[in-house]
Protein 1
Amino acid sequence: MIQNTPDQKVAAQVLKVIYQRLGIAVTFVELPGKRALVESSSGQLDAEAQRIYRIGELYPDLLRVPTSYMTWGVSVFSKKHNFKLTGWLSLKGYTVAMVRGMKYAEIGLRDAQVDNVVTLDDVGEMMKILAANRVDFAIASSFNGALQLKVLGIEDIGPLSPELSQLKLYHYLHKKHRQLLSKIDAVIKSMKRTGELKKLQQKFINELLNNEGA
C-alpha cells in the first residue's frame, strides 16, 4: 500500500475482511507509490491494495481482480484560487502538486498537458507546500485531502467544485497468485451485492477520522 495515504488505510482494512472470508491472513507494507509498484510487479510483494484500472495495462505482471471494490472522489485543492472546474484541462497553465506514484494524477495531468508539476512523497507534504503558496493546486482524493488538512490544522485551503472524477479502484495480484483471482472476485461481488462493501468503507473512514483527525 502507498505510505501515509488515508484512503489506502481504509482499503487495507476492507481487504482484510475480504481475505478473512477466504481464510487467508494478510499483512500490509507501506511504501512510496512508485516503489510499491516495483516491488509488487516484480513479485517481491504479493499484491497492490488498490490501484486504478490502467495499472493492469501498464504492469502486465499485475493481474486485476475484475470487480472494483473501492470508489473515491478526486479533488483539486487550492488556497488562492476558486473557480468552477471543467475537468483536468482547467489546470493547464498552473503549477500543480501530486503524490509520487499516484498514477491517476500522473495520467490526468499528462493528458491535459499540464507542464508545471511538482511531485511529493505524500499528501501531508503536498498540503504544506500548497499552504506556503509554492504551488497553485494539489491533487488528492477528496478524503485524503480533507483528512490531511484537518490533521495539519490548515483551514485556508479547500477543494474546488466539482470533483475532478470518481475513481474506481481495483485490487491487483502478482501473476504467481493467479489462482486466487476468481475467489477474491466472487467475495467482492457478493459483498457489493449486499451493500456490505459500502458500509465497511464508511465504517473504516469514520474510524480513521476519529483516530487521526481528532
Note: The mean pLDDT is 94.
Protein 2
Amino acid sequence: MQDTGKALERMREGAPLVQNITNFVAMNVMANVMLAVGASPAMVHAEEEVAEFAAIASALSINIGTVSGPWATSMELAAQAARAAGRPWVLDPVAVGATAFRRDLGARLLTHRPTVIRGNASEILALSGAEAAGKGADAADPVAAAEAAARALARAQSCVVAVTGPVDFVTDGQREARVRNGHAMMPRITALGCSLTGVIAAFVVDQPPFEATVAALACFGLAGEIAAETARGPGSFQVAFLDALYDLDPQVLTARAQVELAVPA
C-alpha cells in the first residue's frame, strides 16, 4: 500500500481538472470541497458538450442523484467519451435501487466500465442486483452486508468498489482495505458523500485506482475528524471541514490514516 500522504501530494501537484455530472443539491458544496482539497472542478452536463469536455478533462465523476432523461443521456455520452479517451471515471449510483429508471440507468452506465464505483451499502447491493433495503439516497444496510456484493461487482467490472459508511470498505476483487477515518457529524452535511466521489476522481488521475481510492477516503475522513475538534454543530462543521481539507498536511495524513489491508474472503 502506497503512502496515503504521498497520494494527496501527487494529486495536488497535478491539480486535475475533474468534470462532474452531479445533482443539483451537491454542485456548490462539491465544487468548494474539490477546490479546498486541491483539484479543479467543472460542472459540465449539457448533452451538446459533455463528450467533448470529457476528452479534455483529467477525470469524470457521475452522480445520478437528481437524474432526468436528458441528464441520463449526458451521463452515458460522457462516460463513453471518457472511456474512449483513456480517462478515469467514477460512478456514484445514488438511490440506484429506488426506481426502474435508476436501475436501468445504473446497468447502462456499468457497460462503460467505471474506474471506481462509490456508494453506500444499499446502493452497492442494488447495483449488483442483490436485495437492498435503502430508503431513497440513505443506506438501510450495514457496510458489512455489501462486502460480498462489492467483491463480485469489482471482479465483474474490473474496477474498484468503495462501500462508504462508518468504516469504509474498498476492494478491487483481489485486494481489500477498510478505512476507519471519519466522524459522525459528516452525514449531517448535505452532499458531503457526493463531494467525496469527485475527490476520488481527482485522486485516481495518474495514480493506481485502488491505492488512490483508499487515500482519498482516508483524506476525507481525517478532514472530518479535524473539523469536529472545533465545530459546534453542522453549520460550523461544514466551514471547518473545508478549512481542514485545505490545510491537511500530507505527512499528517500518512501518520493519522487508519487503513487496514486484508485478504479477500
Note: Strands lie at 17-21, 40-42, 59-63, 89-92, 116-119, 160-163, 168-171, 176-179, 259-262.
Protein 3
Amino acid sequence: MKPYQKLAETLTPEGESLELFQHDASYFISSNGQRLMTSLAHGSEEELARMACQPFRPAKQPTVLIGGLGMCFTLAAAVESLPQKGATFVVAELTEAILKWNQTHMKGMHPGLLDDPRVIVKLKPVQKLMAEVSDYYSAIMLDVDNGPSAFHGENNDSLYTLEGIHLAKNALKEGGILAVWSAYSDPKYTKLLRKAELDVSVIEVPAAHKGRKNRLHTIWLAKKGNYVSQNIGATGRRKK
C-alpha cells in the first residue's frame, strides 16, 4: 500500500489551514486533522446537483449557482444534468487554492470540466453573489460546510440563518430551488426554511455510491413559489 502523500497546503481567507493529500488514486482535503472531503465518497454531493437541476432540464437557459467548488463532484453532476448549450453554472469558491488544485493535481478526475465555457468560477462568498441579483437563479446549491451547524468556515454561518435563507430566496426565480447538503439532519434548519415560506422536502441519500450504504447524508430541497415537479431517484428517500 502506498503511503499518504501531501501534495499541497494553503490557508483559507479565514486563516484555516487546508491540506491536499493523495493515497493511491484517491484524494482528500483536511483541515486541522479533520477530513473535509474525499474523492472516495461523493454520491450525496452528486445527488444534490441532480435533484436541484432535474426540474430545469426542459429550460433553454437555466442559470444555477453552486456554493463551494470542493472536488468538483457537485459541479460535474450539475453539468451532466443540464447539458443544454444555454445553461450557465456559476460557482462561488472562497479559497483560490481549491480552484488551482482542481486545475492541476486533481484535473484527471473531471477532464475538461473547468474549461467548459458555461462554467464560471468566482472567488468570492456565495452570499455576495446571491445579494447581487433578484429573481435570477433557477437553482442554488449550497455545499460549503458540513451542514447548518458547521465546524469549518464560521463566516458561512449566516447562510443558515433566516436572513440567509431570505437572501437565497430573493435570488431565486419563481419556482426556483434552494438545495442544501449536510452530513447530518437538522430539524431546526427545516423549521427555518418553512418559516421563510418555502416548500420544503428533506431527503436522506447514501453518502457514497460504494462502501457503507447505511451512512446517510441529508439534502434539503426548498422551492420558491409554484411547485416544480421533480423525480427523486431511487437512491433517495423522503423523511417524514
Note: The helical segments are 43-53, 73-81, 96-103, 126-131, 162-171, 187-195.
